[in-house]
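Just scan my protein:

. . .
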Amino acid sequence: MKNGISVFAACIAGILLAYLGAYFTGYTAAFVMPKSFVDIMWLWDTLVVQFLGFGILATGLAFAHAKFFSGSLFKSLLVPFVISQIVLTYPFTYALYWPHIFVVFGSLSLGYWIAKSTILSRSTAN
């Protein structure tokens, strides 16, 4: 039963990531890029637009899932990632936007790693 709840929570995390991340990215996309960043616009898009819109949220969701549901790598990282990508791309296109994919996957990995390292540090301290 606990395994089913963990998978269900991972699916909910993926749906939340898709909808809330798209909402927040609408605001971060409105940040004005400095003129000197024109040559490295991909870096601005990755670090400012995508990370502030999706990255922080993905890190928090992966951390919460791995911490509270004792999620495995599959459930805390891959399920929310796949669900969020399906929700974001299904009705319109199947094209993938690579800076977004790198930010979301990296942020989910970071949140999972932080949760697992805090769990391990607490278990070895006792």
